[in-house]
Amino acid sequence: MASRSEQHPDSTTTTSQRASAARQAVTPELRRWIIEQAQAGYAAPVVLQSMRVAGWDEDVAADALEVTLQDHLNALAEQQGLPAALSVPEPQLDASPAQVDCGDRVVNVLLAMAQPRIVVFGNLLSPEECDALIAAAEPRMARSLTVATKTGGEEINADRTSDGMFFQRGESPLIQRIEERIARLLNWPIENGEGLQVLHYRPGAEYKPHYDYFDPAEPGTATIVKRGGQRVGTLVMYLNTPEKGGGTTFPDVHVEVGPQRGNAVFFSYDRPHTSTRTLHGGAPVIAGEKWIATKWMREREFK
Ligand code: PD2
Ligand code: ZN
Question: What distance in angstroms lies between residue 111's CA and the mean position of ligand 2's atoms?
Protein backbone atom coordinates (compact mmCIF):
# COMPACT_ATOMS: atom_id res chain seq x y z
CA MET A 1 0.00 0.00 0.00
CA ALA A 2 1.22 3.52 -0.76
CA SER A 3 2.44 5.49 2.22
CA ARG A 4 1.08 8.87 1.14
CA SER A 5 -2.59 9.50 0.35
CA GLU A 6 -3.96 11.60 -2.52
CA GLN A 7 -3.31 15.30 -2.05
CA HIS A 8 -6.06 17.01 -0.15
CA PRO A 9 -7.29 20.11 -2.09
CA ASP A 10 -5.91 22.40 0.66
CA SER A 11 -2.34 21.11 0.20
CA THR A 12 -1.56 23.79 -2.39
CA THR A 13 -2.49 26.66 -0.07
CA THR A 14 -0.13 29.16 1.57
CA THR A 15 0.92 29.18 5.22
CA SER A 16 -1.70 31.76 6.23
CA GLN A 17 -4.36 29.88 4.33
CA ARG A 18 -3.24 26.73 6.13
CA ALA A 19 -3.62 28.44 9.51
CA SER A 20 -7.13 29.41 8.61
CA ALA A 21 -7.78 25.86 7.38
CA ALA A 22 -7.03 24.67 10.90
CA ARG A 23 -9.93 26.79 12.16
CA GLN A 24 -12.15 25.70 9.28
CA ALA A 25 -15.26 23.65 9.94
CA VAL A 26 -15.36 20.12 8.58
CA THR A 27 -17.08 20.55 5.22
CA PRO A 28 -18.99 17.94 3.21
CA GLU A 29 -16.14 18.16 0.68
CA LEU A 30 -13.58 17.22 3.34
CA ARG A 31 -15.78 14.36 4.54
CA ARG A 32 -16.06 13.05 0.96
CA TRP A 33 -12.30 13.29 0.54
CA ILE A 34 -11.68 11.35 3.80
CA ILE A 35 -14.04 8.57 2.71
CA GLU A 36 -12.37 8.39 -0.72
CA GLN A 37 -8.97 8.02 0.94
CA ALA A 38 -10.27 5.19 3.15
CA GLN A 39 -11.87 3.49 0.13
CA ALA A 40 -8.57 3.78 -1.74
CA GLY A 41 -7.00 1.75 1.08
CA TYR A 42 -5.09 4.48 2.94
CA ALA A 43 -4.88 3.79 6.67
CA ALA A 44 -6.11 6.51 9.05
CA PRO A 45 -2.57 7.61 10.16
CA VAL A 46 -1.61 8.15 6.49
CA VAL A 47 -4.70 10.29 5.84
CA LEU A 48 -4.06 12.20 9.07
CA GLN A 49 -0.51 12.94 7.94
CA SER A 50 -1.79 14.28 4.58
CA MET A 51 -4.18 16.57 6.43
CA ARG A 52 -1.38 17.83 8.70
CA VAL A 53 0.78 18.56 5.66
CA ALA A 54 -2.17 20.51 4.25
CA GLY A 55 -2.18 22.67 7.40
CA TRP A 56 -4.84 21.04 9.49
CA ASP A 57 -4.40 21.17 13.22
CA GLU A 58 -3.72 17.60 14.40
CA ASP A 59 -6.59 17.44 16.93
CA VAL A 60 -9.11 18.96 14.51
CA ALA A 61 -8.00 16.56 11.77
CA ALA A 62 -8.09 13.53 14.07
CA ASP A 63 -11.62 14.40 15.23
CA ALA A 64 -12.78 14.97 11.64
CA LEU A 65 -11.32 11.60 10.61
CA GLU A 66 -12.81 9.68 13.49
CA VAL A 67 -16.29 11.18 13.21
CA THR A 68 -16.41 10.91 9.41
CA LEU A 69 -15.21 7.31 9.23
CA GLN A 70 -17.43 6.18 12.12
CA ASP A 71 -20.50 7.84 10.56
CA HIS A 72 -19.63 6.22 7.24
CA LEU A 73 -19.24 2.75 8.81
CA ASN A 74 -22.53 3.18 10.68
CA ALA A 75 -24.31 4.16 7.45
CA LEU A 76 -22.86 1.12 5.64
CA ALA A 77 -23.87 -1.15 8.54
CA GLU A 78 -27.40 0.25 8.47
CA GLN A 79 -27.64 -0.29 4.70
CA GLN A 80 -26.71 -3.94 5.28
CA GLY A 81 -29.37 -4.32 7.97
CA LEU A 82 -26.85 -4.71 10.82
CA PRO A 83 -27.81 -3.57 14.32
CA ALA A 84 -26.39 -0.14 15.30
CA ALA A 85 -22.89 -0.04 16.80
CA LEU A 86 -22.67 0.24 20.60
CA SER A 87 -19.92 1.66 22.81
CA VAL A 88 -17.67 -1.04 24.20
CA PRO A 89 -15.18 -1.43 27.04
CA GLU A 90 -11.63 -0.76 25.86
CA PRO A 91 -8.28 -0.79 27.66
CA GLN A 92 -6.14 2.32 27.27
CA LEU A 93 -3.42 0.95 24.99
CA ASP A 94 -2.39 4.16 23.17
CA ALA A 95 1.29 4.11 22.28
CA SER A 96 1.14 0.34 22.58
CA PRO A 97 2.10 -0.06 26.24
CA ALA A 98 3.28 -3.42 27.46
CA GLN A 99 1.59 -2.75 30.78
CA VAL A 100 -1.53 -1.06 32.14
CA ASP A 101 -1.45 0.46 35.62
CA CYS A 102 -4.76 -0.41 37.26
CA GLY A 103 -4.04 1.47 40.49
CA ASP A 104 -3.51 -1.49 42.79
CA ARG A 105 -1.76 -3.70 40.21
CA VAL A 106 0.24 -3.41 37.00
CA VAL A 107 -1.23 -5.73 34.36
CA ASN A 108 0.78 -6.99 31.38
CA VAL A 109 -0.52 -6.78 27.81
CA LEU A 110 0.48 -10.02 26.07
CA LEU A 111 -1.49 -9.70 22.81
CA ALA A 112 -3.80 -7.13 21.24
CA MET A 113 -5.82 -7.91 18.13
CA ALA A 114 -8.07 -5.41 16.35
CA GLN A 115 -10.75 -7.42 14.52
CA PRO A 116 -12.11 -9.20 16.45
CA ARG A 117 -11.07 -7.06 19.39
CA ILE A 118 -9.17 -9.49 21.61
CA VAL A 119 -6.64 -8.51 24.29
CA VAL A 120 -4.76 -11.06 26.39
CA PHE A 121 -3.59 -9.85 29.80
CA GLY A 122 -0.93 -11.30 32.10
CA ASN A 123 -0.71 -10.89 35.86
CA LEU A 124 -4.27 -9.58 36.26
CA LEU A 125 -4.83 -11.69 39.40
CA SER A 126 -2.27 -12.82 41.99
CA PRO A 127 -1.99 -16.56 42.78
CA GLU A 128 -3.53 -15.80 46.20
CA GLU A 129 -6.51 -14.04 44.60
CA CYS A 130 -7.04 -17.01 42.24
CA ASP A 131 -6.98 -19.47 45.14
CA ALA A 132 -9.27 -17.28 47.27
CA LEU A 133 -11.82 -17.01 44.43
CA ILE A 134 -11.85 -20.80 43.98
CA ALA A 135 -12.18 -21.37 47.74
CA ALA A 136 -15.09 -18.90 48.01
CA ALA A 137 -16.85 -20.36 44.96
CA GLU A 138 -16.35 -24.10 45.63
CA PRO A 139 -19.09 -24.63 48.25
CA ARG A 140 -21.61 -22.83 46.00
CA MET A 141 -21.01 -24.70 42.71
CA ALA A 142 -23.90 -26.25 40.74
CA ARG A 143 -24.30 -27.47 37.13
CA SER A 144 -23.91 -24.39 34.92
CA LEU A 145 -26.96 -22.62 33.61
CA THR A 146 -26.98 -20.25 30.66
CA VAL A 147 -29.34 -17.41 29.90
CA ALA A 148 -32.16 -18.84 27.75
CA THR A 149 -32.81 -16.32 25.00
CA LYS A 150 -35.91 -18.29 23.91
CA THR A 151 -37.68 -17.55 27.19
CA GLY A 152 -35.58 -14.92 29.00
CA GLY A 153 -35.02 -17.39 31.89
CA GLU A 154 -32.12 -19.77 32.65
CA GLU A 155 -31.57 -23.35 31.52
CA ILE A 156 -29.10 -26.25 31.70
CA ASN A 157 -27.08 -26.13 28.50
CA ALA A 158 -25.68 -29.34 27.00
CA ASP A 159 -22.97 -27.28 25.27
CA ARG A 160 -21.56 -26.23 28.63
CA THR A 161 -20.50 -29.22 30.70
CA SER A 162 -19.03 -27.27 33.61
CA ASP A 163 -20.20 -26.39 37.13
CA GLY A 164 -20.64 -22.76 38.06
CA MET A 165 -21.85 -20.06 40.44
CA PHE A 166 -22.35 -16.30 40.45
CA PHE A 167 -21.00 -13.90 43.06
CA GLN A 168 -23.04 -10.79 43.79
CA ARG A 169 -21.32 -7.63 42.61
CA GLY A 170 -19.20 -6.28 45.48
CA GLU A 171 -20.25 -9.10 47.80
CA SER A 172 -16.85 -9.31 49.57
CA PRO A 173 -13.75 -7.11 49.80
CA LEU A 174 -11.94 -9.54 47.43
CA ILE A 175 -14.69 -9.36 44.79
CA GLN A 176 -14.94 -5.58 45.17
CA ARG A 177 -11.16 -5.14 44.71
CA ILE A 178 -11.09 -7.32 41.59
CA GLU A 179 -14.12 -5.57 40.12
CA GLU A 180 -12.55 -2.14 40.69
CA ARG A 181 -9.37 -3.35 38.97
CA ILE A 182 -11.34 -4.63 35.99
CA ALA A 183 -13.29 -1.36 35.74
CA ARG A 184 -10.01 0.60 35.57
CA LEU A 185 -8.40 -1.88 33.16
CA LEU A 186 -11.29 -1.77 30.68
CA ASN A 187 -12.52 1.79 31.28
CA TRP A 188 -16.01 0.53 31.93
CA PRO A 189 -18.24 1.42 34.89
CA ILE A 190 -18.26 -1.18 37.66
CA GLU A 191 -22.08 -0.83 37.74
CA ASN A 192 -22.35 -2.09 34.15
CA GLY A 193 -20.78 -5.44 35.07
CA GLU A 194 -22.75 -8.59 35.79
CA GLY A 195 -21.77 -10.46 38.98
CA LEU A 196 -18.57 -12.46 38.56
CA GLN A 197 -19.23 -16.03 37.43
CA VAL A 198 -16.88 -18.88 38.41
CA LEU A 199 -16.83 -22.03 36.27
CA HIS A 200 -15.16 -25.38 36.99
CA TYR A 201 -14.42 -27.82 34.18
CA ARG A 202 -13.44 -31.45 34.85
CA PRO A 203 -11.63 -33.64 32.29
CA GLY A 204 -13.79 -33.88 29.15
CA ALA A 205 -15.81 -30.78 30.06
CA GLU A 206 -16.01 -27.98 27.52
CA TYR A 207 -18.01 -24.93 26.45
CA LYS A 208 -18.88 -25.28 22.78
CA PRO A 209 -18.41 -22.19 20.56
CA HIS A 210 -21.04 -19.52 21.08
CA TYR A 211 -21.51 -15.74 21.17
CA ASP A 212 -21.88 -13.99 24.50
CA TYR A 213 -24.27 -11.27 23.25
CA PHE A 214 -27.99 -11.98 23.25
CA ASP A 215 -29.37 -12.74 19.80
CA PRO A 216 -31.87 -9.98 18.90
CA ALA A 217 -33.87 -12.51 16.83
CA GLU A 218 -34.64 -14.65 19.92
CA PRO A 219 -37.94 -13.96 21.68
CA GLY A 220 -36.47 -13.81 25.22
CA THR A 221 -33.83 -11.20 24.37
CA ALA A 222 -36.11 -8.16 24.85
CA THR A 223 -36.74 -9.27 28.46
CA ILE A 224 -33.07 -10.02 29.16
CA VAL A 225 -31.78 -6.66 27.88
CA LYS A 226 -34.27 -4.66 29.97
CA ARG A 227 -31.74 -5.15 32.77
CA GLY A 228 -28.58 -3.30 31.68
CA GLY A 229 -28.92 -3.56 27.90
CA GLN A 230 -26.82 -5.82 25.67
CA ARG A 231 -23.60 -7.51 26.67
CA VAL A 232 -20.75 -5.64 24.97
CA GLY A 233 -17.63 -7.29 26.42
CA THR A 234 -16.30 -10.41 28.16
CA LEU A 235 -13.28 -10.92 30.41
CA VAL A 236 -12.38 -14.56 31.09
CA MET A 237 -9.84 -14.86 33.94
CA TYR A 238 -7.92 -18.09 34.42
CA LEU A 239 -7.80 -19.16 38.08
CA ASN A 240 -5.55 -22.17 37.51
CA THR A 241 -3.43 -23.70 34.75
CA PRO A 242 -5.00 -26.93 33.48
CA GLU A 243 -2.58 -29.78 32.87
CA LYS A 244 -3.70 -30.20 29.27
CA GLY A 245 -6.42 -28.63 27.07
CA GLY A 246 -8.97 -26.03 28.16
CA GLY A 247 -7.86 -23.13 25.92
CA THR A 248 -10.27 -20.38 24.92
CA THR A 249 -10.79 -20.65 21.17
CA PHE A 250 -11.93 -18.11 18.55
CA PRO A 251 -12.73 -20.40 15.60
CA ASP A 252 -13.46 -17.60 13.07
CA VAL A 253 -9.90 -16.31 13.36
CA HIS A 254 -8.11 -19.54 14.34
CA VAL A 255 -6.89 -18.12 17.64
CA GLU A 256 -6.52 -20.10 20.87
CA VAL A 257 -5.58 -18.51 24.18
CA GLY A 258 -3.67 -20.78 26.54
CA PRO A 259 -5.14 -20.77 30.06
CA GLN A 260 -2.51 -19.61 32.58
CA ARG A 261 -3.29 -18.88 36.22
CA GLY A 262 -3.69 -15.12 36.80
CA ASN A 263 -3.97 -14.27 33.08
CA ALA A 264 -7.14 -13.26 31.23
CA VAL A 265 -8.59 -12.84 27.77
CA PHE A 266 -10.81 -9.86 26.96
CA PHE A 267 -12.97 -9.45 23.87
CA SER A 268 -15.63 -6.92 22.91
CA TYR A 269 -18.50 -6.89 20.43
CA ASP A 270 -19.94 -3.55 19.33
CA ARG A 271 -23.12 -5.05 17.91
CA PRO A 272 -24.97 -8.30 18.59
CA HIS A 273 -23.94 -9.75 15.25
CA THR A 274 -21.68 -12.46 13.82
CA SER A 275 -19.74 -9.75 11.92
CA THR A 276 -17.92 -9.09 15.23
CA ARG A 277 -16.22 -12.48 14.71
CA THR A 278 -16.40 -13.13 18.46
CA LEU A 279 -17.51 -16.74 18.20
CA HIS A 280 -15.56 -18.39 21.03
CA GLY A 281 -15.50 -21.56 23.09
CA GLY A 282 -13.79 -23.34 25.94
CA ALA A 283 -11.88 -26.29 24.44
CA PRO A 284 -12.26 -29.64 26.22
CA VAL A 285 -10.07 -30.13 29.26
CA ILE A 286 -7.90 -33.15 28.45
CA ALA A 287 -6.13 -33.63 31.77
CA GLY A 288 -6.46 -31.92 35.14
CA GLU A 289 -9.17 -29.35 35.73
CA LYS A 290 -9.90 -25.77 34.75
CA TRP A 291 -11.24 -22.90 36.86
CA ILE A 292 -12.20 -19.53 35.37
CA ALA A 293 -13.97 -16.37 36.49
CA THR A 294 -15.93 -14.48 33.83
CA LYS A 295 -17.02 -10.84 33.96
CA TRP A 296 -19.60 -9.84 31.36
CA MET A 297 -20.10 -6.15 30.71
CA ARG A 298 -23.39 -4.54 29.74
CA GLU A 299 -24.19 -1.31 27.91
CA ARG A 300 -25.69 0.30 31.00
CA GLU A 301 -26.00 -0.16 34.74
CA PHE A 302 -26.85 -3.79 35.56
CA LYS A 303 -29.12 -3.35 38.61
O1 PD2 B 1 -13.84 -21.33 29.63
C2 PD2 B 1 -13.65 -20.62 28.64
O3 PD2 B 1 -12.55 -20.51 28.16
C4 PD2 B 1 -14.82 -19.92 28.06
C5 PD2 B 1 -15.06 -20.07 26.74
C6 PD2 B 1 -16.16 -19.42 26.21
C7 PD2 B 1 -15.66 -19.14 28.82
C8 PD2 B 1 -16.73 -18.52 28.20
N9 PD2 B 1 -16.97 -18.65 26.92
C10 PD2 B 1 -17.67 -17.67 28.94
O11 PD2 B 1 -17.59 -17.67 30.17
O12 PD2 B 1 -18.47 -16.98 28.28
ZN1 ZN C 1 -18.59 -17.19 26.28
Answer: 19
Strand ranges (E), 127-272: 142-143, 145-147, 154-156, 163-166, 197-201, 207-210, 231-238, 244-245, 248-250, 255-257, 264-268
* Dihedral (Cα; 212, 214, 218, 224), 10-degree rounding: 130
Q: What tens digit of pLDDT does each residue of 213-246 get?
A: 999 999 999 999 999 999 999 999 999 999 999 9
Question: Which range among 5-14, 71-80, 226-235, 275-284 shows the weakest confidence by mean pLDDT?
Answer: 5-14
Whole-number Å distance, alpha carbon 212 to ligand 2 midpoint, is 5
pTM for the structure as a whole: 0.83
Q: What is the CATH number of domain 99-298?
A: 2.60.120.620
Pocket test for ligand 1, best of 200, 268, 292, 296 (most atoms within 8 A of CB): 292
Which residue has the CA at smallest separation from atom 9 of ligand 1? 281
In angstroms, rounded to a whole number, what is the distance separating the alpha carbons of residues 235 and 202?
21
Q: Which ligand is nearest to the CA of 248?
A: 1
**Bond preceding residue 116 cis, omega within 30 of 0:** yes
Judge if the beta carbon of residue 212 lies within 6 A of ligand 1: yes
State how far the Cα of 54 lies from the Cα of 47, in Å rounded to an integer.
Answer: 11
Q: Does 47 score more than 80 pLDDT?
A: yes
- Give me the chain's average pLDDT, please: 90
298 and 88 Cβ atoms separated by less than 8 Å:
no
Nearest listed ligand to the Cα of residue 162:
1
Q: Where are the domains of the chain?
A: 4-79, 99-298
> Atom 12 (ligand 1): residue with closest C-alpha?
212
